[in-house]
Amino acid sequence: MTKRTCLVTGASDGIGRETARRLAQQGAPIVLWCRDPVRGRQAQEDIRRTTHNDAVDLCIADLASQREIRRGCAEIRERHDRLDVLVNNAAVVPRTRRLTEDGIEMQFAVNHLAGFLLVHLLADLLRAAPAARVVNVASYMERNGVIDFDGLRGEGRYDPHAAYCRSKLANVLFTYELARRVEGTTLTANCLHPGVVATKLLSDLSGRPRALGFMNAWRYAGHAEGAATSVYLALSPDVEDVSGRFFVDQREASSSPASYDRDLQARLWQTSLTLTGTESIEKLPRQY
Predict the structure, then answer these.
(1) Which of 87, 120, 184, 261 could bond to 8 as cystine, CB 3.0-4.6 Å?
(2) Residue 149 above 60 pLDDT?
(3) 104-118 residues labelled b (16+ CB within 10 A) or e (exposed)
(4) How far is CA 229 from CA 4, 111, 259, in A?
């Protein structure tokens, strides 16, 4: 792992921070993608101190902004010449309807489109790695998701739970379509359900005030358990050639029937290209 560069989004706390820590423990150069500079620096210092790994880089950029994502990716490409592992972990659950500066519903933008755009903007770094892996943190709640293509810009009534399920279904659809489009290359793509983990996101999803998060900590899994499958998909030789699969508890599992709909996968892919203004990964030049 000492030469395998890993990028983890949403790495300032929760599952993302624990995922980055466990990757850093293996000696890997790590890039923490965080929105808040104070919490990002705290995570960086903590991971360096607890893992004795000084190769912990920090990228501060808001995944709700495509402009910020492009700036962050430009900085990463200036400092790194390859990317072996991309863990799309970041997610949000705003309780009221919010649109990004790009005019897109917040959960769909951060939970799905951000990871989609990162894969495309960092495609040349992923191709530069001998065997790169994309790991998308989805959720079993994708089974309740419905992709409303007429409401992705925030039209209509906002239901935070339904929006979350929709974004998690998008994660799985994106993973399967990506795996098929890069088939025959050394890039793999898999997704996972991390378990029901006591995080800030769970508090937001349940409607419970974050100050009462100790109740979730008592009832649900901890961050280490929640990070286990992400780390497994990032590191394990058992999945070196495995792609386009859904995992739970470090084992392959079935996702929802809707997630296997190839027409839906293709439509979401094309819609995501339109909403992010980018070319499809298989059409991008080796360097750009």
Answers:
(1) 87
(2) yes
(3) bbbbbbbbbbbbbbb
(4) 18, 18, 20
User: Which tokens hold the place of 204?
Assistant: 């937001």
Residue 17's pLDDT is what? 96
Global confidence as pTM:
0.91
Please state, in angstroms and rounded to a whole number, the distance separating the CA atoms of residues 241 and 185: 10
Report d(CA 63, CA 70) in Å as an integer. 10
Distance of alpha carbon 251 from alpha carbon 233, whole angstroms: 10
Residue 216 banded pLDDT, cuts 50, 70, 90: very low
* CATH for 6-193+221-283, options being 3.40.50.12780, 3.40.50.720, 3.40.980.10, 3.40.50.1460: 3.40.50.720
Task: Output DSSP code: residue 102.
Answer: T
d(Cα 226, Cα 179) in Å, to the nearest integer?
A: 24
- E strands, the chain, are 6-9, 30-34, 56-60, 85-88, 133-137, 188-193, 245-248, 251-253
Instruction: Measure the CA–CA gap between 46 and 148, rounded to whole angstroms.
Output: 41
Average pLDDT over residues 89-116: 96
Tell whether the model's pLDDT for residue 134 goes beyond 70: yes
Residue 208, pLDDT > 80, answer no
Residue 220 annotated to the active site? no
Alpha-carbon distance of 78 to 233, in angstroms, equals 27
Element (H, E) at 16: helix 14-25
Per-residue pLDDT band at 199 (split at 50, 70, 90):
very low
Catalytic one of 140, 164, 176, 232: 164
